[in-house]
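Quick note —
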Amino acid sequence: MKRNRPIKVLMVSPRLEYCGGVESYIMSYYNNTDREKVSFDFIAHRAEEPSYKDYIEKSGGRVFIIPEKELKNPFRMRKILDRFFTQHNYYDVVHCNMPNGAYYYLSAAKRAGVPVRILHAHQTQYADMLAHSLRNYPLIKLGKLYANERCACSEAAGKFLFGKDFYVINNALECERFFFSGEERARRRAEMGLDGKLVVCNVGRFCHQKNQLFLLDIFRHFHSVRPDAVLLLVGDGEMREDITAKIAALGLEDCVILTGTQMEVPPYLMVSDVMVMPSLYEGLPIVGLEAQASGLPCVVSDTVTGELDITGNVTFCPLKASPEEWTQCVLASADRDRMPRNEILEKMSAGGYDIHTEARKLELLYEQMLHSDGDRV
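Predicted structure written out below.
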């Protein structure tokens, strides 16, 4: 049956700021989906500048912000969302990317008669701390009751949250944005004063999950072996003060660069020699895919799913290994040559990580879900 209007999708995300992997995934699909087939609006709990909010609104989408404090009051959240869906009673799909908020959003969507209610798994743990896990577990369990479609960023994330019966929506990229250029690298390294330096890079929100405090321990030892090394920390977040304090305590002020939140990640991958990610857990980290698209070798913790290694350019190091052991892994990876771009694109496409192909698949998946004859919750 041919539709006479786009499928209306409400994307739910914790935030719309630049430094998050979920946000990067959402924006890749937003930018590459046919707007005549699928139309997106967004609900988030934070969109502090710099964020995607203005960009989305200028490109035709709408952004609704519900302050984070409201999540602490279930009765108020129910009232807010019931009123929201009464006022905006035209959504075909609610696509929830925050499992601990799924109960609020998907139950309200069901009461409002939204036909497709998706819960999307992006991680392989309930939270980064026990107290948060204990809080999130019952909320996520309840949220699953109101989802009638289940998606995940990877097999590992899907099996963790659902066990079985889920769709994998790959964290696909505009690969050409990340292709390496020797001329561009030389120009940007000169601008940033990085000539003659070995650049270790980490991109991500400054939070417990990303484990930047341990990364600083790794880098202190790495720098003792390679005094020419510099660490680029690209991002920001709630642990910024802890990170800056540890940089000072370790005496690394002259060799660690904090760039703040950046909308454009490719330049920082371009100037780097190795990406290091000692994350406590991940679903399938988008920045690891971006680094591979740039030909950049990656060293990541063994808590990250092996699905990340699309190009053969990823080394997995035990999270519990010492900084000295991590240093050896990083040294071995930093000496690798960048992969040719044609080989990278071939492998990324074959793995399902080229956004131009994957966006078409998402359009078809929404259509399939909307017109499914199967039983719905």
